[in-house]
Design goal:
Blueprint lengths: L3 H26 L6 H24 L9 H24 L5 H12 L3 H13 L1 H35 L21 H17 L2 H19 L5 H11 L2 H18 L1
GO molecular function: auxin efflux transmembrane transporter activity
Keywords: Auxin signaling pathway, Membrane, Transmembrane, Transmembrane helix, Transport
Membrane topology: Multi-pass membrane protein
């Protein structure tokens, strides 16, 4: 039976997120403290420093040698079922289309596990639940985000080939008439573009480095140097507040403009 203490734990873990949300809303609507250029600066700080260090911090906490493969398998199956369902909807429904299929897949499967999932599941199930969320986030970034990027790039190429202009070319410079003969090469170019985008994403390096450290530290029982751990934690602790604050400020400033 769920007691009042359990409810309080969940509320205590989620309430700080709403504090950041309210402050972000008030800073724009009531106090007029932030403008679009301020939002861009917060976004740059969040993207290149705070979020990667936050991801690195949580990734290093997982033990890759004791991952719950049943849970990861169930997670993969659920996402595969959603992909099949969305594909059938896009093919059979008159309202179905490829762009909405990408959006539906992203919203239904690639939720923000570290921002909301860690405090919520941690409060409900303790360290065991928190560890499962971190495992899911690692799989999400190393597998599903790559698939999503490929879907977006495929859509971009598809749009360029469907333009009415006769001089429209694909990623390799081929026209629409000879596009059918260059599919294998186009796929390689598509993979290359996705790889370059991942190479420019600081979060990719954070996830890879965090997983590498987790493998090494759990294999040889190593501890992260205090000076490094402190440097990571001081930025990581800012992430949830900065992420929610930026999302609120950006949404309101975009709507007002």
């Amino acid at each position: 039976m769920i007691g009042w203490e359990d409810i309080y734990k969940v509320l205590a873990s989620m309430f700080p997120l709403y504090v950041a949300l309210i402050l972000g809303y008030g800073s724009v609507k009531w106090w007029h403290m932030f403008k679009p250029d301020h939002c861009d600066a917060i976004n740059q700080l969040n993207c290149y420093f705070i979020m990667p260090l936050f991801t690195f911090d949580f990734t290093t906490r997982v033990n890759p040698y004791k991952m719950n493969f049943r849970f990861l398998g169930a997670d993969a199956i659920s996402k595969a079922v959603i992909i099949v369902a969305i594909s059938l909807w896009a093919k059979l429904s008159t309202k179905g289309n490829y762009p909405w299929s990408i959006t539906s897949f992203s919203l239904s499967t690639l939720n923000n596990t570290l921002v909301v999932g860690v405090p919520l599941i941690g409060a409900m199930y303790g360290p065991f639940g928190e560890n499962l969320v971190i495992q899911s986030s690692i799989l999400q970034f190393t597998v599903w985000i790559i698939i999503l990027l490929m879907m977006y790039e495929f859509q971009s190429v598809k749009k360029s080939l469907n333009l009415p202009n006769d001089s429209t070319t694909d990623l390799e410079g081929h026209t629409e008439e000879d596009a059918l003969t260059t599919r294998p090469s186009s796929l390689l170019i598509l993979i290359k573009i996705v790889g370059l985008k991942l190479a420019k994403n600081p979060n990719a390096y954070a996830c890879i480095l965090g997983l590498a450290w987790a493998l090494v530290s759990n294999r040889w029982d190593l501890k992260m140097p205090t000076i490094v751990e402190g440097s990571v934690l001081i930025m990581s602790s800012w992430f949830r507040c900065c992420h929610v604050l930026h999302g609120t400020v950006h949404g309101i400033t975009t709507q007002d403009n």
